[in-house]
Design brief:
mainly alpha, Four Helix Bundle (Hemerythrin (Met), subunit A), 76% helix, elongated
Length: 197
């Protein structure tokens, strides 16, 4: 009896029926909620501020704008990698993952340079605290995404994926696109909205 039941249990499911897929979707939903709360806090404190918000004026776009383009390009590279494995093109998968890794690392490096040029710190005021918290949390998510991509890239070089078996690539791709969409929300809220509100 137990053996018959065991034979019917789904093993190695793919797509929306896989527990790994659902786990990634739930992770994305909870992380999206975190960023929604942070951005709500930013706008709430801005609406309550008695002086100018941000106090030191809108953040410069000199580094943030090209960094946004870099992150969007990394999303395109990830899409290219995933669509490659769906077609059985292992070389395209490996190259796309490598390009995504490089672009993500460049994004973080530019963010560090931007931090070093800021005239305020997290301890300066509420704005500084929110700016570094929001962008810092996003940077941490980028770092986690890069770690995931690195693991998937190693597995890709070891030949673990095929046209039919690539759930790990799909899950990491979803996460990476989520990180990029969050950056667009952060960039719009922190860098662009002070210029129009």
């Amino acid at each position: 009896m137990a053996t018959a039941v065991a034979r019917r249990l789904p093993v190695g499911r793919a797509g929306k029926g896989a527990t790994g897929w659902w786990g990634m979707m739930l992770l994305i939903v909870t992380e999206a909620s975190l960023f929604a709360y942070l951005l709500f806090s930013y706008f709430y404190l801005g609406s309550m501020a008695r002086g100018a918000w941000p106090p030191s004026g809108p953040p410069e776009l000199r580094l943030a704008l090209p960094n946004t383009v870099i992150l969007l390009l990394s999303s395109a590279a990830m899409w290219w990698a995933e669509s490659g494995v769906r077609r059985g093109r292992q070389g395209r998968l490996r190259l796309g993952l490598l390009l995504t890794l490089v672009l993500g690392i460049v994004f973080l490096a530019i963010q560090v340079v931007e931090y070093s040029n800021k005239q305020f710190t997290p301890a300066t005021d509420a704005y500084g605290s929110l700016f570094f918290t929001i962008t810092g949390f996003h940077g941490a998510h980028v770092a986690v995404g890069l770690l995931m991509i690195a693991v998937v890239a190693v597995r890709a070089w070891l030949g673990h994926f095929s046209e039919r078996r690539h759930l790990a690539v799909t899950n990491v791709s979803w996460y990476w696109h989520f990180v990029d969409v969050v950056w667009l929300a952060v960039f719009t809220s922190l860098y662009l909205s002070p210029r129009f509100l």
